[in-house]
Amino acid sequence: MLTKAERTKQFILETAAPIFNQKGISGANIDDVLAATKLTKGCLYGHFEGKEDLALQVVEHMLNANGEKMLLTISKGKTAKAKVFAFLDFYKDPLNTYLKGGCPIFNIAVESDDNFPAIKEKIAGVIRHGQELFVSILNQGIENGEFSNKLDPAVYAFKAVAAVEGAVVMCKAMNTSKPMASLLNSLKSELEGYAL
């Protein structure tokens, strides 16, 4: 059971997440968070040392939430192929992502590249871990006889994630989900080509 202070901090993080995801770390400010939470500055600063501390904790909250949702989605698949398809389908509607503003991994990665080294390091770890998980699922599929050993798990995993993340941005910019459906079908067909 969370204490009142812990519940308040969780509320701040959950409320601030879409603000930071949409406006970015540089664009979001304390006043945005105060307006959304309807809390006082004193209350906010009772939980965070300042904007930098708030940003770091919001980023961590977004990455953890995204990771949990992704793992839950993937875990529903009973086979390696089903897990990969579940991952791909997680991105099927890039205009209505679970966190307003698009994929937090991509958003944070782009902004942190030159401006926030601590956050860049954190996001790099998340991306590496995600790639390792994806590769391990594909390797499991090869070991289980689902896929031919002609499949290169590292290449396919990188291609799939890079394509999907790029498509999220492009679909948002063009205000259409249609290209994503074609991309997901293409990635699924490619993987099907390795099925035994």
UniProtKB/TrEMBL annotation:
<dbReference type="GO" id="GO:0003677">
    <property type="term" value="F:DNA binding"/>
</dbReference>
<dbReference type="Pfam" id="PF00440">
    <property type="entry name" value="TetR_N"/>
</dbReference>
<dbReference type="InterPro" id="IPR011075">
    <property type="entry name" value="TetR_C"/>
</dbReference>
<dbReference type="InterPro" id="IPR009057">
    <property type="entry name" value="Homeodomain-like_sf"/>
</dbReference>
<feature type="domain" description="HTH tetR-type">
    <location>
        <begin position="6"/>
        <end position="66"/>
    </location>
</feature>
<protein>
    <submittedName>
        <fullName>TetR/AcrR family transcriptional regulator</fullName>
    </submittedName>
</protein>
<dbReference type="InterPro" id="IPR001647">
    <property type="entry name" value="HTH_TetR"/>
</dbReference>
<keyword id="KW-0805">Transcription regulation</keyword>
<feature type="DNA-binding region" description="H-T-H motif">
    <location>
        <begin position="29"/>
        <end position="48"/>
    </location>
</feature>
<dbReference type="InterPro" id="IPR036271">
    <property type="entry name" value="Tet_transcr_reg_TetR-rel_C_sf"/>
</dbReference>
<dbReference type="Pfam" id="PF16925">
    <property type="entry name" value="TetR_C_13"/>
</dbReference>
<keyword id="KW-0238">DNA-binding</keyword>
<keyword id="KW-0804">Transcription</keyword>
